[in-house]
């Protein structure tokens, strides 16, 4: 919290509220932080730290040294980092023209443009893998397909993060450089690009994190030949029951995640400082001359983003014998490979995603309120980093940890229908926080000061000032959380019961069985999941009023 916020809370110490009762500002502020932080960190401890530590303790045995010294381990590490770095570079190159379109070009229907850019990011990774398989027309393992698919998945992170800062940059600095004789590219390189550097580093760190922990894409396109740490952890845990090997690989993955989170935290702090200094939005204008070059590049990138999606839709109705809706018709039946119909699996997905969304909203909003209330910057950064950790720890590790720990709690949550939503909530809570927190931090402190002067305590200020002003961001976070939970597969694939599979689990089951009809059903299920996701994103972008959040 800033000094002004502290003085606001302190100013209420000896004032009376509207009902005549005394309001204790510092005491109420401390109680708010204590209770809120206890609830947030308690949930994180029980449903994340405890299961992960339990798995590590089970697995870290005599085989640890053998795993860490095996050449195969380091080949997997090298491929994980190499494909993540290549995908990150490609995502930045492709995302920059889109960021320019969003920030500086008066595009009609910009909400639709944002939706088109965002759909790949919220698509289930299994769907992305299947879309590229359909685009390439082959099921052969392909390392470059993994790189392309991961870049496709993360272009939206670059475009949205960079455009959020680019929109706030004062164009007069670039105009001054142009008036002094700099060409458009030199003005961009020497003026605009350095100003965008915090957003670029932030986006690069997040994209690298997502690519290094990619699961569904590598599972579908790697074919067992190309493996990352995430897929290897899954293989050793689920199929080989090699807990020692999985734990050792989890430690390596955790180290890479911490490094990426550290870079992201530093870059995010610099980005928020830049945004705090620039409140006016830069005017958009029609491009002229060479400014049409990035516009043309942006159009090409949009076409490239649409190609896998179109290929998936076409493949879902195109069997070997010609055009057919057999896959869609088969989804309505039962028996065979699936224990339930495809529509029942879709209903299971909707139900679990809804539960995961309200859980993550409660946790994420409370975490954001606590983070904006902490007086210590270092305490806020540490808590923020802790809340981001579930993004980088294998969901398989968390899911398996649930099975070996949660029976200790009353009611044995391992048999509860809320088990899968708990795991999904851990995955989407960081996205909720990254969407809402920048908006809360941008609230004018004078509004809080006025409320405190009128006698409102910290709880009431948060409830009646902060939350209404961040209302659209909360709705956006709920929408994004829902669509991400809808397609979550890592933990869900491990925890979902056979009689209640979600749609991604059903897709994975269909892909693992031979037969043209099974393949058609998988593509049909992917197409349905993609259409639902695209519709939800379009609604979200229509409701969204700003791009203050990071996603």
TrEMBL record:
PANTHER family tied to this protein: INNER MEMBRANE ABC TRANSPORTER PERMEASE PROTEIN YDCV
Q: Which GO terms describe its cellular component?
A: plasma membrane
Stretches the record annotates as Disordered: 1-20
Domain annotation ABC transmembrane type-1: ranges: 77-262, 346-540
Name of the protein: Thiamine transport system permease protein
Q: Which residues cross the membrane?
A: 30-56, 76-103, 115-136, 142-162, 199-223, 243-268, 289-314, 356-374, 386-406, 418-440, 469-487, 521-540
Q: Which GO BP annotation is one of this protein's?
A: transmembrane transport
Concerning Pfam families, the annotation shows: BPD_transp_1
This protein's source sits in the domain of life called: Bacteria
What family name appears in the similarity comment?
Belongs to the binding-protein-dependent transport system permease family.
Membrane disposition: Multi-pass membrane protein
List locations, semicolon-separated: Cell inner membrane; Cell membrane
| Statement: the UniProt record of this protein carries the keyword Zinc | no
């Amino acid at each position: 919290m800033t000094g002004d916020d502290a003085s606001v809370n302190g100013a209420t110490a000896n004032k009376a509220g509207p009902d005549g009762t005394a309001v204790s500002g510092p005491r109420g502020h401390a109680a708010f932080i204590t209770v809120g932080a206890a609830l947030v960190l308690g949930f994180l401890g029980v449903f994340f730290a405890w299961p992960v530590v339990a798995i590590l303790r089970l697995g870290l045995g005599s085989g640890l040294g053998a795993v860490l010294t095996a050449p195969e381990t380091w080949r997997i590490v090298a491929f994980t980092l190499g494909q993540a770095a290549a995908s990150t570079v490609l995502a930045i190159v492709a995302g920059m023209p889109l960021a320019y379109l969003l920030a500086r070009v008066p595009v009609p229907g910009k909400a639709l443009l944002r939706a088109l850019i965002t759909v790949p990011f919220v698509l289930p990774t299994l769907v992305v893998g299947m879309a590229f398989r359909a685009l390439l027309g082959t099921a052969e393992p392909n390392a470059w397909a993994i790189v392309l698919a991961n870049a496709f998945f993360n272009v939206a992170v670059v475009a949205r993060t960079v455009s959020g800062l680019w929109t706030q940059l004062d164009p007069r600095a670039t105009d001054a450089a142009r008036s002094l004789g700099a060409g458009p590219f030199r003005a961009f390189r020497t003026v605009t690009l350095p100003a965008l550097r915090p957003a670029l580093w932030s986006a690069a760190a997040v994209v690298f994190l997502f690519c290094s922990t990619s699961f569904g894409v590598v599972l579908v396109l790697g074919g067992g030949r190309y493996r990352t740490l995430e897929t290897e952890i899954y293989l050793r845990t689920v199929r080989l029951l090699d807990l020692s090997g999985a734990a050792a690989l989890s430690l390596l993955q955790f180290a890479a995640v911490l490094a990426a989170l550290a870079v992201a935290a530093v870059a995010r702090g610099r980005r928020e400082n830049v945004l705090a200094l620039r409140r006016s939005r830069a005017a958009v204008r029609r491009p002229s001359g060479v400014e049409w070059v990035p516009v043309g590049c942006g159009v090409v990138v949009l076409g490239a983003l649409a190609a896998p999606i179109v290929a998936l839709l076409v493949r879902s109705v195109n069997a070997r014998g010609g055009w057919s809706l057999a896959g869609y018709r088969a989804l309505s039946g039962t028996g065979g490979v699936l224990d339930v119909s495809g529509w029942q699996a879709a209903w299971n997905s909707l139900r679990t995603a809804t539960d995961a969304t309200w859980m993550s909203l409660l946790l994420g909003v409370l975490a954001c309120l606590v983070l904006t209330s902490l007086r210590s910057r270092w305490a806020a950064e540490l808590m923020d980093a802790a809340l981001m950790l579930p993004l980088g720890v294998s969901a398989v590790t968390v899911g398996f940890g649930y099975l070996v720990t949660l029976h200790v709690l009353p009611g044995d949550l391992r048999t509860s229908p809320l088990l899968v939503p708990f795991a999904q909530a851990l995955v989407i809570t960081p996205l909720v926080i990254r969407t809402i927190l920048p908006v809360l931090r941008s609230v004018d402190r004078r509004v809080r000061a006025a409320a405190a002067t009128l006698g409102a305590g910290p709880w009431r200020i948060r409830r009646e000032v902060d939350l209404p002003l961040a209302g659209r961001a909360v709705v956006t976070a709920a929408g994004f959380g829902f669509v991400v939970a809808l397609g979550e597969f890592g933990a869900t694939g491990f925890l979902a019961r056979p009689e209640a599979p979600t749609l991604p689990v059903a897709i994975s089951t269909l892909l693992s069985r031979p037969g043209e009809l099974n393949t058609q059903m998988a593509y049909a299920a992917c197409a349905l999941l993609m259409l639902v996701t695209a519709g939800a994103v379009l609604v979200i972008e229509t409701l969204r009023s700003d791009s203050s959040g990071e996603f």
